[in-house]
Each structure stands twice: as structure tokens, then as C-alpha cells.
Hints:
This protein is α/β, with parallel strands linked by helices. The protein is 29% helix and 24% strand. Helix 4 runs parallel beside helix 5 (168-178). The structure holds shikimate-3-phosphate. Residues 22, 25, 95, 167-169, 172, 194, 316-317, 340 line the site of shikimate-3-phosphate (S3P).
Amino acid sequence: MKTVTPACKPLRGTLSVPGDKSIAHRALLFGALCEGVLQVRNMPFGQDVLSTCHCLEAMGVAIRETTETLEIHGKGLRNPLRPPSAALDCGNSGTSMRLLMGVLAGQPFKAGLSGDASLSRRPMRRVAEPLRAMGAELSLQEGTYPPAQIHGRRPLKPISFELPVPSAQVKSAVLLAGLFAEGQTRITDNFATRDHSERMMEWLGGTAVLRRNGTSVFVQPSPLHAPDALCVPGDISSAAFFIGAALLVHGSDITVQGVGINPTRMGFVNALCRMGADVRIFNERESGAEPVADVRVRHSCLNPLQLKTADIPALVDEVPLLAVLASQADGESRFEGLAELRIKESDRLEGTARALRAMGADAAAEGDALVVPGGKRLRGGAVETYGDHRLAMAFTVAALAAEEETVLSDADCAAVSFPNFFAQLEALLS
Ligand code: S3P
């Protein structure tokens, strides 16, 4: 349990946030498949990223920490990884499990993948189906849930695959498996999910590995070489909590430096602009294969927000926080197309609506939509986080803007993506 008291001071100053979690997982996995060593700077060490590290180490990948960098000693595509001696534990991390399934599909051995109670309730058939079509053998509990058993083979059969759900994790699993296929794999993503895997493959292997055409990408097995050290951009999904807090707390003015501004992740900032928030992106630059910038945000009065299904992939992890902000807007917000939110680390759609109500706001989950009437100051109260890191951080932000204190059932789960979240927040408020 953690008690969060209302902010009695504005948030002010300049800060940076840990490296992007999505990019970090990919650096580890693609690094393991590179020829030679990939050096990575600004690697975030949240629990999810550590899960991917430990799984790779269990398969013989050497990962060494130096003062400034993490070195991933790649095995190359031709040399198989080492069969793990026990099931690979992915903890709470859906990205670890789904992307590792793509790697394991191309390894000539059997392996098991398991996770915590939350991950054990998340659907894996969406990944298993295309990987089976490529020739891997996979079994799941009740045909859907972890633990998974996978028996890979190589070469895999190339497939033409259209993403059936808006999931970058599913897309990335097939992209990784495509590196072990006999010929060209085609993947079509009509949802515009995050493209960090595609960018990293282009950076490591050029057009010999990945070509884009409209909403399709074509993958060929060809060696991956790191052209340079990789500096992981700050995670916009972590920065979002400080941005949200600054918007709600009177007098706040903060700048977050070195944040990733990949267009497939910019839905949150775009939504804030539509709400009339004072957010400015400046000092834009490139970092490896990803665009980076500084973000300045000042306390603002917010308009309500309407989100449609097509808006969701670019802000999927920021929906609970946007709902908190919408509760303080002067009118009704409606977010549609939130089916994927129900199968995240928790049912985030229901969890968000309940937590808002627990703090005195009106909110309702209606099918796949969330309706937030807005216009009512948050009171504070007892909030259930369901052990979900994004709910814990979103409702810490809500608690700062409330009239009275808020008690979160479990706030330590923030460490899944952002271990120093509370310390950084306190530093900004002091
Ligand atoms: C992620 C993709 C998204 C996102 C998750 C990280 C990734 O999940 O919610 O936090 O790194 O590919 P889905 O692929 O399930 O949409």
C-alpha cells in the first residue's frame, strides 16, 4: 500500500526518464542475433527488461554491464542459441514472452516459457498461429494461455501474414521468426502499431533484411551488424506520467529531455494538443534509428477528448493516464476501440473506470468504450491497482491533483517499467 498526498507545490525543472522499454527489449533480442557485440547506452533496467536479459542469458547469450554501456554478445543468425535447462521465466512481461516466441520458432530445440499470474492470463494464440504456419510446434494451456512449450525448427517457411489485431508484439514475433525463414516473409500492419522492430532491423541489416512498401514489410534472412553503439531514447510512456502531473498541478512547468518521438508512439502528445494542453516539442534530433526531442509542458486547462479505434495503437499504454486527465476536463470524453486494454497486464479498461470512481469522478466502461463525464474535482480515496504498473503510476498522478489523500493498493509494481518513478516524482515536487 502507498499513500499519495495532494501536491502542495508545482512541478518544476528539467529531467530525463529511463530508456524506452520497447526499444530496450528489441536491442537485447536483435543484439543476441547480431554478428559481434552491440553496445547499448541508456538501457532501462525495469523488471520487464531484466526478464528478457535473464531469458537470453539462460540461452547462452553473454550480456555484460560496463560503466556506460550494456554489451550484448551476439551469436549471429546461423549459430543456434543454447537450449535452456528450465522454462524461461518472463515475469510480468508480455513483450518478453511474445518476442521470445518469435526467436524460439527458429531455434532447433524445445523450450518452455512461463510468467507470473497476470502474464498467465494473457492470450498467446495470436502469436502461436502465425509461428505454427511457419513450421514451429507450439502448445499452450487451453490453446491460448502460458506456460507455452515451443519446438522451433530451421529453416522456417516464409508466410504472408496480415496482423489480425493491433499488436506490435505479434508483428515483432513474426519479424523475428522471418530471420530464420527460407525466403521472404511479408507482414501487413493496417493498424500502424509501433515500428521499433522494423527500424532496428533496418539499422542492423539495411534493405537486405527489411524493406517497406505501404503498410507491408518484407523480411529476408541476412546478417545483422551493429553500425554503432545504440543510445536508447527516453521512454515517452514513462515521461507521460510527469507530463500528465505537470498539466494537472497549478503552476507546473517541466522539460523532459531526450524523449523518443517516434510517430507510432506520439498519440499521447497529439491527444494532449487536441485537449488544448500547453505542450511543446523542440530540439528534434536522431538517435540511431529513432527520432528524439525535448518536451516542455506547462499546467493547462483541458478540453474533453474523443478517441476512435484508429487513434488507440499510438497511445495504447497511455489510456489510463488520458482518462485521469479527461476526468479534469470541462466536458464529456469518450474513448472508443479499447478491446486490447482488457487483455493488458490487467483489465485496464475496467480498472481505470473503477479507480476514477473510487476517487470521486464519474466514469463508465461500456463494452469497448470508456466514458468520462469530466468537470468534477477528484476527491481521493482507496484505489486498487491490480498490480498493474501503468494503473499505479496513472493514479499517482490523479492523487497529486486530488483534494485529499489517496491510498494505492500496490504501487511497487511501478518497477515493472519505471523503478525510480516515485523518487523522481518526489525530486520534482521538492
Ligand atoms: C509493446 C506493444 C504494446 C504495448 C506494450 C509494449 C511492444 O502491446 O502495449 O506495452 O513493445 O511491442 P501490444 O503489442 O499487445 O499492443
